[in-house]
Specification:
Layout lengths: L8 H10 L3 E2 L10 E5 L5 E5 H5 L6 H4 L5 H7 L12 H5 L6 H5 L5 H10 L3 E2 L11 E4 L5 E4 L1 H5 L15 H10 L3 E2 L10 E5 L5 E5 H5 L7 H4 L4 E5 L5 E5 H7 L4 H19 L24 E3 L4 E6 L15 H20 L3 E6 L4 H11 L5
Parallel strand pairs: 13-14
Antiparallel strand pairs: 1-2, 2-3, 4-5, 5-6, 7-8, 8-9, 10-11, 12-13
Helix pairs in contact: 13-15
Amino acid sequence: MPFQIKYSIYDAYKIAESRNGQCLSDHYINCNTPLRWKCAKGHEWTANFHSIKNCKTWCSTCSDTRLDISVAKELAHSKNGHEWTANFTRIKNQGAWCPDCAHRRPLTLEIAKKIAFSRNGECLSTEYINSNVPMQWQCIMGYKWNATLSNIKRDQWCPHCAGVISHTLEIAKQIAYSRNGKCLSTEYKNLETDLLWSCAKGHEWYASFSGIKNKGGTWCPYCAGNVRYTLEKCTNGHLWNAPLFNIKVLGTWCSFCRNKCENLCREIVTKYLGPPSNIRQPDFLKTYDHPLRLELDIYYPEFGLTIEVQGQQHKKYIEFFHRGDPSNFFKQQIRDQLKKKLCEENWIVLKVVWYYEDPYIVIREHLRELGLIE
């Protein structure tokens, strides 16, 4: 704890004596406890030690006595010509003076630039008129805005970073440019919706605007060595983020293409058999090599049927999909064969709809073959 000076009643006696008066109290508790005082003219009053010692107050009766105007004129001298109204006692006894001079030094363009520099920004204006005329500022993120110097001095700063101003795609592009990169998205929705970004080295990734915009916010995960997800692009131009484990080990691919065809097949089957089961990963598809279980596309356990919608990566080696490694294609085939074997062992018929087949025709043929429709 900081060292504190402890006063006593004798300190009160000394202060009263220095002002040709008396302290009439016998005991001192603390600086806020009222004491009894008496001035040279015999006036008595009660006041705490703090107000007498630190605020330099004294006998209020004597203070209210009209003083000669010449005394006030002698005290009154403001070199800046400011005018204000104040109690004479505060001027004479408490040392109060011009509020303009006390709280505001003359403002200049140099002061504006120093304030901006202290906040890692810039004052872009070339002229200072007065504290109420807006000036142009720029923050560390590259945002520009207009504000008066008086507002800036009151600890206000960039409204963009503070979230006061709505963000736009243009602002996203400005931030990316300030980091030697690009914002490749063509539409901005809100702070939490992912946008597509590109760094100076050409890496591309998705991230929300809220994660990018703040000072110290995220930027290229590839350059930072924090990549757990990779940006993928299919032959139809779809872009998405996916865990590296899912791509390299589980062999998953474009959910846009897959879901489009899979959803169509699901709609067709539903018209004949009703909606499929919500269970996509039954327990019998769990193995030592696949502890998270393999997944079925369209599963009807009550009919002992599953329909798999297979893209071209299941049929042949594709350099882009299999990441230039033919062994990934063989792993894909092994997984497909394992899934079929496990289904057969559990009395589930697995039918396939290939990417080159008409699902309306093929699905109807499969169901007729199994005697599920006429």
